[in-house]
Amino acid sequence: MKTRYLLFGAAFVALVNISCDPKSSETMEKTEVSETAEEASESENRPSPLEVKDGEISGKPFKVHYSSPAVKGRVLWGDLVPYNVVWRTGANEATYVELSQDMTIEGQKLAAGKYSLFTIPKEDSDWTVIFNSDWELEHGHFQYDEKNDVLRVDVSPVWEENSQERFSIDIENPGLVVRWEKLKLPISIN
């Protein structure tokens, strides 16, 4: 019986010593920091970095998530981004927006929620902007399904003289503005 108590006591003391060892907690903290640093490094090393923009449109919270590709000397419109074909409006995963309240997009109502954002670029006419209920798509337009479209609106692109290297979507007047290369696509939201 004494042997059993001695073994139990020794195991308990060893367990307490291991759990109180400062090296163990330091190692755990370093591991957590390393994982966080690895995640940050992975995000920084993406050719098209992730962007999240928070703001308000007409006093209502609005958020947009997208990947930001660069022009890199490529011909975009009609080549990298073909005309008359659904484009994921960014790179990598599908771009998506979060509306905390119902809003009006180009004069049409859109209920609060999360929506992937797609466009159909056109060479000589208005572009089609699509809000789709399937917002969590890993491969953008490759998984796009038209039957999940909640809203489609036509928007007039503006072609500017200055070129913007990195794709961006900003929450600004008149609501949401997509820019890339010489494109400015202002989407009216309120």
UniProtKB/TrEMBL annotation:
Source domain of life: Bacteria
Basic and acidic residues bias: start-end ranges: 23-33
Region (Disordered): 23-56
Record protein name field: DUF2911 domain-containing protein
Organism expressing this protein natively: Algoriphagus iocasae
